[in-house]
Structures are given as C-alpha cells and as structure tokens.
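Form 7-S
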Amino acid sequence: MGVRVEGEGPVRTVVLDRPEVRNAVDRDTADALVAAFEGLDADGEVRAAVLWGAGGTFCAGADLAGIADGRANRLDVPGRDVGDGGAA
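Output:
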C-alpha cells in the first residue's frame, strides 16, 4: 500500500510510501489518500493531520508511468461534489 496513517490521539500522520517512484501519486495512491483523509475527518478525536513522504522525498507529483498505463488520477470524486475548492 502506498499510503498509511500513523499515530494516535488528536494528531495523525498520513504517509506517502512509494519511495521507489519518489512518492509519485497514481490513481490507487490518490484513492488511498482520499480514503485516509475521509477516515481522519470522520474520527472525532483527530484535530490535525500531517502529510509526509517516506524515503526522503515528499512527492514527485503525478505518476507519469501510471498515466501511461491508464492509471491516471481522477479529477473528480464520483458521487461527491468537490465544488470550486473554496474559491470566492
């Protein structure tokens, strides 16, 4: 799995853990990030989350090999209105 959640109590760490691709994000990783943050949002104990990259790299961005293989990141979340990101 390319994403894991660590810690307990009010502060958790969401770890991108794909060091073999410098933590680049493909569709599976993006889906796992959404699930991790939705889970933390639903947990009444969590007050803050830190996004961190394992292996010395935060994130190389989109996984271009994943895009070439048909595993591109979605730009929307089916069944969920993501709106305009809060822009005024």
